[in-house]
UniProtKB/TrEMBL annotation:
It is a multi-pass membrane protein. The gene is Rhl. It is found in: Membrane. One of its GO terms (molecular function) is ammonium channel activity. This is RHL protein. Pfam families: Ammonium_transp. Belongs to the ammonium transporter (TC 2.A.49) family. Rh subfamily. GO terms for cellular component: plasma membrane. It comes from Daphoenositta chrysoptera (varied sittella). The lineage of its organism: Eukaryota, Metazoa, Chordata, Craniata, Vertebrata. Its main location: membrane.
Length: 412
């Protein structure tokens, strides 16, 4: 009996096969002078933590919809493992073109996994609305644009390589918001975009995994690993405590709200990502963690009531106030701390140097967010062409459109 749901048999398998063929050719016929894949490295413990965080943590973190659990975890896994291979291909091309230096195999793999965080965040914004073909295309485009943005920051603004990678939260959040603005809004009567206690529990499980492994994420590619780990943990701890406190203070009945805890406990890790390696006083990291939690919870109230309806944004997982706003706060904090540190060291005599630092940091921030918004909008328009089999709004937020449910097949 033919299914009521659209089959992707003629698109998804062949698209994946095409990409895997190109990636296989990449390893068979390598670009010259791109380094040894099996060069020795001590990054494996941190890489393992980040791999758990991106695949398991974000996979369950996105399980916020009551009828979209299979797709949240399954498609996230597909995008990550496919995107990591594509990232290696993009890095090989950049090395071949001479715009990026040669690196060891494990370091390149670690950068690829960290870069996929942008895709996981963007996926949360379009969760339930984009089909697998659209998600794969979005992931490939986003990865390429993110590497281009990093090259601009590194080449023209002289931003250190590890710091260009920490723009991943900012880029992923605003790229995803721009993409989701191009999708039609679901009808008012559609209730599939709600959560249940079970989906909230699984989503909180993913949040806890992301929280636990975040110190490794912020320290994996920096030379000051001890400072990065300690400062990240202090910021995360304070943001988690503040999330429970602010949740009670802002809820009408004075109870904890799972949506607050789900998003605000991670705010400290996002906010501290730019400065975790350079902060020398734990109280600074703790203040940033507190501010990150505050801006997340207060931002969720303002954005959901004012910003999202005005711009017709359907931010399914709340990535704007979970990752976007804390990333903006972290970027501003990095500028302030850098200026204060440089000013104290020069006794505020070298104003030209301070001006240059401000220009570089603000320029990197503006360049990243501008490219994310512009290219995200263009990508969203491309994803809605008929060739990519756009899903009808009545089929949003439903696993049955993509996954087999044998126990429900009798009713079809």
């Amino acid at each position: 009996m033919p299914s009521r749901y659209l089959s992707f048999r003629c698109s998804v398998p062949w698209l994946i096969l095409l990409l895997e063929t190109l990636l296989l050719i990449r390893f068979v016929f390598r670009f010259p002078d791109v380094g040894n894949t099996y060069s020795p490295s001590s990054l494996y413990p941190e890489f393992q933590d980040v791999n758990h965080m991106v695949i398991f943590g974000f996979g369950f973190f996105l399980m916020v919809l009551r009828r979209y659990g299979f797709s949240s975890t399954g498609l996230n896994f597909l995008l990550i493992v496919l995107g990591v291979q594509c990232s290696l291909l993009v890095e090989d091309l950049l090395v071949f073109l001479g715009v990026q230096e040669n690196k060891g195999g494990m370091r390149r793999l670690a950068e690829a996994v960290v870069s996929m965080t942008a895709v996981a965040i963007s996926t949360g914004a379009v969760l339930g609305k984009a089909n697998p073909v659209q998600l794969i295309v979005m992931s490939l485009v986003e990865l390429i644009i993110f590497y281009v943005s990093r090259c601009i920051n590194r080449t023209f603004l002289q931003v250190p390589d590890n710091l260009t990678l920490m723009h991943v939260h900012l880029f992923g959040a605003y790229f995803g918001l721009a993409v989701t603005s191009c999708f039609p809004e679901p009808p008012p009567g559609l209730d599939k975009n709600r959560s249940t206690p079970k989906s909230d529990l699984f989503s909180m499980l993913g949040t806890v995994f992301v929280w636990v492994f975040w110190p490794s994420f912020n320290s994996i590619l920096t030379d000051s690993k001890r400072e990065a780990v300690l400062n990240t943990y202090f910021a995360l701890a304070v943001s988690a405590v503040a999330a429970f406190m602010l949740s009670v203070l802002t809820s009408k009945d004075g109870k904890f709200r799972m949506t607050h805890i789900h998003s605000a406990v991670l705010a400290g890790g996002v906010t501290i990502s730019y400065t975790a390696h350079s902060i020398q006083h734990p109280w600074i990291a703790m203040i940033l963690g507190l501010l990150g939690s505050v801006i997340t919870i207060l931002g969720s109230h303002c954005l959901q009531r004012c910003f999202n309806p005005a711009f017709k944004l359907q931010d399914t997982s709340g990535v704007h106030f979970t990752f976007g706003l804390p990333a903006v706060l972290g970027a501003v904090a990095s500028v302030v701390l850098c200026v204060v540190e440089e000013g104290i060291s020069t006794q505020w005599n070298d104003l030209s140097s301070l001006g240059h630092l401000i220009f570089v940091d603000v320029g990197a921030f503006c360049q990243t967010i501008s490219i994310a918004l512009i290219t995200g909008l263009i990508t969203g328009l491309i994803l809605n062409i008929k060739l990519l089999k756009t899903v009808h709004v009545s089929k949003y937020f439903d696993d049955q459109f993509y996954w087999e449910f044998p126990h429900l097949s009798v009713g079809f």
